[in-house]
């Protein structure tokens, strides 16, 4: 493994015991650059700055697919940042195995993370060979359909209550000059939309058989064929979006130029920045209004090993601040995500966040594909669905065959 070549060079930079650190600057890299994301990350910076240290913002424009290679290159190239965002799951697995990331087990034990972080799968995704390497900051679920109330009013049809009603309303939207489904051009958006359709249409068990158990027969079977039929509908309904970034697609919904968008709950941050109110200006349908299940993926911060003693101390201060109850509330209310702590006050939660909290409380959850697939397998899936949504000549049957092959070889 290429990453292992740098492990020896950094082996001497062991984690330091937690203690009061002198004020120091700490560069933090992330890909939160949209309006809603920037408002949310400012809350994390505020919490860290309040400790006497200084958050040096290292935002990387684009998305995770753009930012992660840059982050990884810096760490493996000997120019590590103080902390970096990844999705909690397997994205930093090779960095950890190469000995380049900091072990947070002692801090997690002192602060009782195993008791306060819920569901336990969040911390499990930070754990490799019994040691904890990241601090989860939120629960982000993909399984949402966001609808513009104004768009459906203009089209003269009721706001849909589920995916089937949404598809049925598409002709009226198109007649009114409205794009039915907003979808950006980044590959992860198409792959994510397919995953959401799978949970809604085929159900939780099928999703887990495919992505957790890597069952090729299920991936090639009739239940997934129904999902590809729905994806074919989504492909047709999204024609004409002509945007690249996810937040540009969200803006089409906010401005009433599109009827809806399949996107994670981070879209809420964009609606908030635009001054729109859940249940009034827009409607949210968890599980596409068909199957109310949400995924418990999200974001976490990892801490590369550093030679600077004061910065190493500040890393633990930051990790602790990220999980502070007040920080959890302030950040997640603006991010649109759910907190990783179950003991915080979310009285200010909006209608959509409350729906998510209710589903979480019922235990109707799945792990995110970032937690179940390696980065390589995830990229293969993203490449497939990017091509499928961009190329109308690719049939659902051909796409399903390729999908089953990816699952058969997945790790």
Topology:
Elements: H1 7-10, E1 25-30, H2 35-49, E2 54-59, H3 64-76, E3 83-87, H4 93-97, H5 105-110, H6 113-116, H7 120-124, E4 127-128, E5 131-132, E6 134-136, E7 144-148, H8 149-155, H9 163-175, E8 179-181, H10 187-202, H11 204-211, H12 216-219, H13 222-237, H14 246-254, E9 258-262, H15 267-273, E10 282-286, E11 294-295, E12 299-302, H16 309-322, H17 325-335, H18 351-362, E13 365-366, H19 369-372, H20 375-390, H21 396-409
Parallel strand pairs: 1-2, 1-3, 8-9, 11-13
Antiparallel strand pairs: 3-12, 4-5, 6-12, 7-9, 7-10
Helix pairs in contact: 2-15, 2-17, 8-9, 10-11, 10-13, 10-20, 13-21, 20-21
Number of helices: 21
Shape: globular
End-to-end distance:
16 Å
Largest sheet: 5 strands, mixed
Q: For this structure, what is the CATH homologous superfamily of the largest domain?
A: Periplasmic binding protein-like II
CATH architecture of the largest domain: 3-Layer(aba) Sandwich
The rounded Rg comes to 21 Å
CATH C-level class of the largest domain: Alpha Beta
User: Which percent band covers the strand fraction?
Assistant: 5-15%
* Count of beta strands: 13
Q: Stretches where pLDDT falls below 50 for ≥5 residues?
A: 1-21
Helix content: 40-55%
Q: Output the strand order for the largest sheet.
A: 2-1-3-12-6
Mean pLDDT: 92
Number of domains: 2
**CATH fold category name of the largest domain:** D-Maltodextrin-Binding Protein, domain 2
Which class do the helix and strand fractions yield? alpha/beta
